[in-house]
Amino acid sequence: MKKYLITTFILLTTLLITQLAFAQKNLSQKLSGSILLQVQSHGQAWYVNPANYRKYYLGRPVDAFALMRNLGIGITNEDLNKIPVGIIKYNYQDDDNDGLSNSLENALGTDPQNIDSDSDGYDDKTEVENNYDPLNDGKLIIDENFTRENLGKIFLQTEKAGQAWYINPADGKKYFLGRPADAFVIMKNLSLGITNANLNKIATGYYTAPSPLPPPTTCTNCQTHSADQVFAAAASAIRSGDKITTLTYFTPEMQKAIEYTMDFLNDEGRFILGNIMSGAKLSDSTDTEKTYSAEVYFSLGGYKVPIYFHIKKQGDGTWLLANL
Question: What pLDDT is stored for residue 171 in this prediction?
Answer without folding.
Answer: 92
